[in-house]
Each structure stands twice: as C-alpha cells, then as structure tokens.
Amino acid sequence: SASFTYAAKDATATSNIATVSLTVGVGIPQVVFDFPMNTDPGWSTTGLWAFGHPTGGGTHNRDPNNGYTGVNVCGYNLTGDYSRGMPARYLTATALDCSHATQVQLKFWRWLGVDAPTYAHATIEVSNDGSAWSTIWQNTTPISDTAWLQQTYDISAVADSHATVYIRWGMGPTTADSTTYPGWNIDDVQIWGIVHNSCAGVVLGDVDGNGLVDGRDVQRFVEVLIDPYAGGVQFDEFCAADMNADGFMTIADVESFVQKLLNP
Known about the structure:
Layout: E1 2-6, E2 18-22, E3 30-35, E4 44-45, E5 49-52, E6 73-76, E7 89-92, E8 101-110, E9 113-114, E10 120-127, E11 134-138, E12 143-144, E13 149-154, H1 156-159, E14 166-174, E15 185-195, H2 218-226, H3 235-241, H4 252-262
C-alpha cells in the first residue's frame, strides 16, 4: 500500500491538498485468461457444438441473434434446438495453466434454454487432469433465458495451482420424450484469479527458455530491456533477463548478461 499528496498552484492561490491511496501487489484478483470469442478459440467439440454466429432460431425464446459482444459465440446448434434422446455432448476448453493462480473463478456470459433435469441436462464441469471431472453447476429447473446473463463460478478447489485445468460445458443427456430447447450459447469467457508469480527455477540469462545461455538469447534480452512491460513479454522472460534479480530491467543488467554469455 502507498499514498501521496498533491496540490495545484497558480500565481495567487494554492488548492486544497488531495491524497491518493493505492495498493499494488498480491491479493488482487485479475484476468488470467480471456476468450472474447472474436475468433475461434479452437476448443474441442462433440455433437452440434460449434463456434460461429447464432441465428436466433429454435423455440422457447430462441437463440440470440449475436454474441453478448461481437457476433460470435460457442453454442450448441447455432440454428435451433438440441435433439431428443441424445447423450451428453461437450465443448471442452484447451488446458489452462493455473499453476501461478489461486482463488480461481470462471466467468462468462450465457444465453441458455434447457428443459427440466428430468428430461434434459446442461452442465459445467472442471478437471485438472482431463480424466476426473467435477460438476460445478447443472440445471435444477427449466431455463429459458431472454437476455445475456453473466455467470461466475468458484473453481478454486479443482483449479488452484494446477498447470492443466480443463473446463467443459455439457449439453445433455436428453430423454426421448423431452421438449427441445435452444441449448447453450456462451460468450466472453474469462478465468480470474490471484496471481502469484515467482522466478524460482528460472535460469538467469536464458531468455529464450531453451535451457542454455548463448547467442540465441541476445535478441530477446535486448527486446525485454527496451520494453520490459510490453504485452508480449512473458513473466519467465522477465525473470531470466533481470540478471541482478532486483525486480527491474535496467542497464545495470547488461554487464551481468554479457558475463553470463562469456562464462555460461
């Protein structure tokens, strides 16, 4: 935590003194992964799960005509209802590295239509090995959304500090006598958490992460030195380039980097 004061002056007067307080550091949740669905995230699908533009089709208040933001979503049957008598079909996100995160949450916007659980199921499941799945939500009543609704789920029990976290949305199973509904529409998926970055295990000077300190590290070292807080700089790259481990990238790191190149 820190604070500072400031005031404004002109030739004849001085303003009141204002105080600004701020907190920097651990303990503040932030976006760890962000999937706005502007482009296809490349997640695995079964059945009629697909990425694309919903068409407003189906029954029971229908699918949306667009995403919550933009035009695309991940949804089940973008042109209408799910089927009767089908097994569970899944949309499964690729493995997410939450090894540096705790208090992990899943947030997304949904537009969902599903029959009562006696006849049809909509589920959200999480796994940290791709094999054993934990159900974090399932419908307990019929649902017929008429607008986009933001959803937030605590997945920390499964996801915290794990390097391979999988999330999947299930449509079905449905019974042969069920009433069909439009199913899932999903947009703006985010993973939130408290990030705990550590330089432990990072080899100083190995900016390209290949396990060696050599000439192949020079270009990336210079790029990190010029703009250490650029969006494309990974935390491990910053750690490897911060040769004196003071938490900053400055000219003071250059001599140590050169020495490491000469004497790896």
